[in-house]
Design the sequence.
């Protein structure tokens, strides 16, 4: 899960990294009061969005009066940052900047360990800075002590490393790491990505407000699906993945790799997905039922594609039973194409066939003799062409 | 011959008394793998599928000194301790099926394993299948299905996806070919055993004439393939499919910050296929093409 700047800065502060004094304001809040309470004349108002390039998209406004702050806040809340939802604004002290540096820690997949990245040329153009001016230092996750580092800022690297380790993050980034004219080192921005798989040792993450990685608020269906995998058996099969999309073909995929390949095949066949959904790891019937019900609840669907590879150990009968439970309730009238194989496939297919018969569904069933991509084409033919 | 599994393979299952561990014990034994016992703390003295359960790997090794492979079936919050126990006891090959291990724990275990020269396959790996010899994990599924999909042959298979390991193996079989070894490397960001690690093993394996990879976007592991082809560590025919092209159609915002772009500078998704193609790797537009592409070279 990605954190908003103000959330990241709270973590930085906790680990001893200085951040500007500031206040978070929400939509409809009393902006003037927030500014007056902060008690600093020269401020910057910053749109809180989940991905970068905000500076290049007018998401930051400098102000020096109540009027300017109020106007800036209204403008920022009404601006669309490449489709990203502005959750809040951060009003904070304008720094008197002498230098802008760059500092981050993330995982290097080749070394399979964290890497610290540092440059004296921080700021918006960091991705254009020549390789020679960027230092990359491989770290060992087992060593909480960073050791000596050639950074002009004596404390931020070690504090950031502590933050990275203690908070179970996948990324911590300070850009820019500002040196002020009076010689202080301040994290002017914060980008933090938490490792979702470590949630069980971070009770405090429950307090974070819901969000999606798509730069918008989660839809009702997305929130509902996420709940399926919560609870103490969270790791017993996954059925909690659902991304709502613009198309009209409902998707019930199984297996991560197959799902990715099938999304590619679906789009190639000229269809538009209504969602991206995947269950895997042999989830129980109840989890799949809940998932299927939510997937099929989207209005204006034109087709349903239930597809997966040749499963290793996912029980086809059990998982299909969950889908059948949902189909029995919803009884869709649009074409349904099923492609699946694996343990208990005969019983699974029988359950589907019987469900189709008793509900008069337009359903076609395929096993492993027909490839997944072929069944995408079959569905494309069955779905009525838009007039 | 095959890679990773041999007739001398003796498997311990950590977490053998759990539902998934017991299922894996049965799947392995059914396929003729020599599962010698299992480990679950405080459950020593029990039996699963007729095999003895021990409280610790140390206790197990005292009775079963030939055990040389561990398959780990524990919940994610117990995974780090289980993997480190196997490493501390110098088990040379560890298959970690556990999904959703925090990346910090994975990185810790991989660093410890590297120091001891221990090979970890996974995490999130369903295992390794050597047709006709044995399997680690539940890869292939029930015996009947496994026999339909797998037969000894000349194609090495590597997959980031468990389901697709079977699916691609099936496409190979449908094309009239067989598999030397099929490995599910797992879909996590950090992979204990990478494509390049396995290609080096397949290179040394006489039975393997060509290799197929089902890849996914994420990480820059594909560039290691380019490197080992260039320096001739791997010279056999190779076909690859990299899934996830649709992801570029998703709205912006999947990535945060610049660190990813800096680490992968010049080694992003766009450069991947180009570099692989330039090195002579066959690129499949969709996964069903993998078997077609490799068939004339097998």
Sequence:
């Amino acid at each position: 899960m990605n954190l908003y700047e103000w959330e990241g800065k709270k973590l930085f502060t906790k680990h001893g990294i200085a951040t500007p004094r500031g206040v978070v304001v929400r939509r409809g809040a009393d902006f003037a009061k927030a500014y007056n309470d902060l008690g600093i004349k020269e401020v910057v108002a910053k749109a809180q969005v989940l991905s970068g390039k905000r500076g290049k998209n007018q998401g930051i406004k400098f102000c020096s009066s109540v009027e300017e702050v109020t106007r800036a806040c209204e403008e920022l809340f009404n601006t669309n940052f490449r489709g990203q939802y502005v959750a809040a604004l951060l009003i904070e002290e304008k720094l008197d900047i002498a230098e802008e540096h760059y500092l981050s820690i993330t995982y290097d997949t080749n070394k399979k360990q964290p890497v610290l990245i540092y440059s004296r040329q921080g700021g918006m153009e960091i991705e254009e800075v020549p390789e020679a001016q960027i230092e990359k230092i491989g770290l060992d996750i087992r060593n909480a002590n960073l050791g000596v580092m050639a950074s002009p800022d004596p404390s931020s690297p070690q504090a950031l490393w502590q933050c990275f380790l203690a908070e179970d993050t996948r990324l911590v980034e300070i850009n820019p790491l500002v040196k002020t004219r009076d010689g202080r080192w301040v994290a002017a921005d914060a980008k933090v990505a938490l490792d979702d798989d470590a949630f069980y040792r971070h009770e405090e993450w429950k307090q974070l407000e819901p969000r999606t990685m798509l730069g918008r608020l989660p839809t009702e269906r997305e929130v509902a699906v996420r709940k399926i995998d919560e609870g103490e058996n969270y790791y017993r099969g996954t059925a909690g993945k659902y991304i709502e999309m613009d198309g009209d073909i409902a998707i019930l995929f199984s297996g991560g790799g197959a799902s990715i390949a099938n999304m590619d095949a679906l789009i190639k066949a000229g269809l538009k997905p209504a969602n991206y959904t995947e269950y895997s790891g042999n989830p129980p019937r109840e989890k799949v039922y809940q998932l299927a019900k939510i997937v099929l609840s989207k209005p204006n669907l034109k087709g349903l594609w239930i597809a997966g590879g040749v499963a290793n150990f996912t029980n086809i009968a059990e998982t299909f039973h969950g889908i059948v439970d949902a189909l029995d309730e919803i009884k869709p009238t649009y074409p349904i194409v099923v492609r699946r194989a694996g343990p208990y496939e005969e019983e699974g297919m029988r359950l589907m066939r019987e469900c189709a018969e008793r509900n008069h569904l337009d359903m076609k069933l395929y096993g492993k003799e027909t490839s997944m991509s072929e069944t995408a084409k079959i569905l494309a033919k069955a779905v009525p062409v838009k007039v | 011959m095959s890679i990773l599994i041999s007739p001398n393979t003796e498997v311990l299952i950590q977490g053998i008394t759990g539902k998934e561990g017991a299922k894996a014990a049965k799947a392995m034994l059914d396929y003729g793998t020599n599962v010698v016992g299992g480990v679950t703390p405080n459950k020593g003295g029990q039996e699963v599928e007729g095999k003895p359960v021990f409280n610790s790997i140390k206790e197990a090794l005292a009775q079963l000194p030939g055990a040389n492979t561990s398959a780990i079936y524990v919940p994610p919050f117990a995974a780090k301790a289980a993997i480190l126990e196997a490493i501390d006891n110098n088990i040379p090959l560890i298959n970690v099926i556990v999904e959703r291990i925090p990346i910090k724990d994975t990185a810790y275990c991989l660093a410890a394993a590297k120091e001891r020269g221990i090979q970890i396959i996974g995490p999130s790996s369903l295992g390794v299948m050597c047709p006709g010899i044995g399997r680690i994990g539940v890869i292939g599924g029930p015996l009947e299905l496994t026999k339909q999909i797998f037969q000894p042959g000349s194609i090495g298979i590597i997959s980031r996806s468990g389901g697709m390991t079977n699916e691609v193996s099936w496409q190979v079989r449908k094309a009239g070919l067989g598999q030397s070894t099929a490995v599910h490397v797992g879909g996590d960001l950090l992979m204990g055993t990478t494509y390049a690690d396995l290609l080096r093993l397949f290179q040394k394996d006489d039975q393997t004439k060509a290799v197929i990879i089902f890849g996914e976007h994420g990480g820059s592991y594909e560039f290691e393939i380019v490197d080992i082809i260039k320096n001739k560590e791997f010279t056999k025919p190779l076909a690859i499919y990299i899934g996830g092209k649709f992801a570029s159609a998703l709205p912006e915002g999947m990535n945060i910050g610049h660190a990813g772009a800096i680490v992968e500078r010049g080694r992003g998704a766009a450069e991947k296929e180009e570099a692989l193609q330039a090195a002579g790797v066959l690129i499949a537009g969709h996964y069903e093409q993998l078997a077609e592409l490799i068939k004339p070279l097998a």
